[in-house]
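Sample intake sheet
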Amino acid sequence: MLKCEKRRIFFMENRPFLTLTNRGRYFLSVRSLKIVFMKTEMKAHIKQEGNSFDKLLKENGEIVFLPMAENLLNFGIETADFQPTKMQTTYEREVDGAYWVKTKDGEHFILHFEYQSTDDHDLVKRMNEYAAMLRCRYDDIVNVKSLVIYVGERPATMRTELRAEEIFKGFYLLQIRDQPVEPFLESKIPEAVIMAILARYPKTEAESILTQIVERLKSLSKTNSDLVKYSNQLLMFSQLRNLEAETAKILNLMPIHIDLSKSTLYKKGAEQERIKMEQEFLAEKKSIVIHFLENKLASLKKIAEIVNVPIKFVRQVKKEIEN
């Protein structure tokens, strides 16, 4: 995030869950998934939500968006080595002088002064940074005129202009909402299939598209763990299209079954573990109900249906929140 403050400018960076059935099978459904953003600390969730999307997009960026960039920008990639993205968390610059000038001819601009005693060949890059910061501070004034006042003894040989390739002129914009949904649905890459929920399709076909996404993810997932992971990601991205309730409903209709009847846990009949699982399962349902209530995603009756709990349970949770 770019934050401008007076003359100082700062660049800041800011389980699946199992329940035992009467047939000796553990049952896993979407309503019991431990979703990253479904926490009881809803205030913290709101602050972290944007970062969660960023983190997930970064994780999937190379496999999904690198090929799309190659096509959009019309170049062929021979190699693409990922570079460290962590920047200095606080970056501060203070200019030596800045004046808001109005000329006799009616022109408006920022006149920027820098005083320099050394022949600094990197100064032109810093001046570019200063100009960008000043434009941020005075966003209604586009033009910035910069003057370096050099007081060094030897003649200056520093560059005063950026090379053409050093000048930022803008960026390419890829809007996923404008991309046709079919290529995403037909992809063999699960992370790309998930992006279909953000692509272009009639709103009236949302449930159909979601069903196709889930079916495609099921066919591409090599393990149940993979399917759980992709389901989590799909549910998270569904928030960006206000389809969270619909997504949860569709995932709930297509539960994942895991046969653990031969597992060590089941054979030992670990009653304590089963009790612990049941308690955690109930807590997980409560956290999902809280999420729906806090964000006003559905009526009490609808929440009860989606989460598969008595409406009395939903009312109780609502009462706890209000108190």
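Comment: The chain has eleven helices and nine strands. The mean pLDDT is 76.
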